[in-house]
Amino acid sequence: MLAISADGVSKRYKGLSQTALSNVSLNAERGQIYTLLGRNGAGKTTFVRICATQLMPTKGRIEVLGYDVIKDANEVRKLISIVPQEGRPLRALTPWDHVYNWLQIRGEKKQVAREKTEKILEKLDLYDAKDRPAMNLSGGMKQKVLVAMAMSVDAQLLFLDEPTIGLDPISRRQVWSAIKDWKKEGKSILLTTHYMDEAEILSDNIVIIDNGKIIARGTIKELRRTIPQNTRIDIVKDNIDMELFKSYGTVVDSGGNTVRIFTYESAIKELTGLAINKNLSFTVSPITLDDVFISLVGGNEIERQQQDRKDLKNDAVTRI
Ligand SMILES: Nc1ncnc2c1ncn2[C@@H]1O[C@H](COP(=O)(O)OP(=O)(O)OP(=O)(O)O)[C@@H](O)[C@H]1O
Ligand SMILES: [Mg+2]
């Protein structure tokens, strides 16, 4: 049985001429973390909400943990948990109330609910703030209350729609660790995020959605292999004419004192040989998920970034 099995799913919102999702098919294995990546408006939340029985598809079929999300919506709801993108805790209720009440609604006995509430609040470093009404919590703490609620319950599949938005670097890591623990129990996760480091650290599989369609999927390694110029070489500028390197790949001025060249694996030897010849320092690394994403989704984003950096530099010079 799969965590999610989607077949030809489309969604058109009323009053919108464009389809938010078109013909999306996806099989997600259990016990893994799948991450949906895509630009704003790509259709990620729409897909998550359909899987989580919050929204009806216009066309297609989705089974979650073997149950049809339309016909067996109640069965599905017992097995899933969600951090919605636009969620907010209730102003007057404390973190403790949110988690404890939620566990009781999901059918936990009082004693178990108390233990589970304590555990998740500790894990996400919310325990000291457990009795503060949500209106007196910081933005990041409010977001963590939603994560705590979703992760406190005994579900099989967790939907996390941008769960770490607004969290500081330490809080993000607390959430990542909770996510990893969740997976260790053999449970499944569908995550959406715009943070590529987060996706890189957590995902077993990446699914890239663009304009409502899946345009790429696979492990990060597999996706990297689909990009021909999948190696990056950063060379310290040092007064050398960078035109020299143009024939080896895409040259991007990274703003500081280095130039980045996206190139083919087959060109590494020659390119680094040239750099050594000219006495230039360099580093060689595989492209990151960020590079993969921009290459697959961004079109001529690399040139645009280059222009942005030039504009920023000019702006800085003008201001001085
Ligand atoms: N309730 C709604 N009514 C009408 N259109 C909607 C509604 N929700 C989303 N849309 C539209 O559907 C498309 C996909 O939106 P969706 O929220 O799924 O994108 P997303 O990938 O989650 O984006 P983001 O990264 O900004 O969260 C967008 O064009 C959006 O304007
Ligand atoms: Mg969204």
In CATH, the homologous superfamily of the largest domain goes by the name P-loop containing nucleotide triphosphate hydrolases
Query: Looking across the biggest beta sheet, what order are the strands in?
Result: 6-7-8-3-9-10
CATH topology-level name of the largest domain: Rossmann fold
CATH architecture descriptor text of the largest domain = 3-Layer(aba) Sandwich
The structural class is: alpha/beta
The end-to-end span amounts to: 63 Å
CATH C-level name of the largest domain: Alpha Beta
How would you describe the overall organization of this protein?
Strands 6-7-8-3-9-10 form a six-stranded mixed beta sheet, with helices on both faces. Strands 2-1-4-5 form a four-stranded antiparallel beta sheet. The protein has a four-stranded antiparallel beta sheet with strand order 12-13-11-14. The model has no long low-confidence stretch (mean pLDDT 92). The protein has two domains: 4-217, 3-Layer(aba) Sandwich (Rossmann fold); 227-319, Alpha-Beta Plaits (2-Layer Sandwich). The longest helix has 19 residues, at 301-319. The radius of gyration is 23 Å and the shape is globular. The protein is of the alpha/beta class. The chain has helices spanning 44-51, 73-79, 95-105, 110-123, 139-152, 169-184, 196-202, 220-225, 268-277, 289-297, 301-319, and strands at residues 4-11, 21-28, 33-37, 59-64, 67-68, 80-83, 157-161, 188-192, 205-210, 213-218, 231-236, 249-253, 258-263, 282-286. The structure holds adenosine-5'-triphosphate and magnesium ion (MG). Magnesium ion (MG) is lined by residues 44-45, 85, 161.
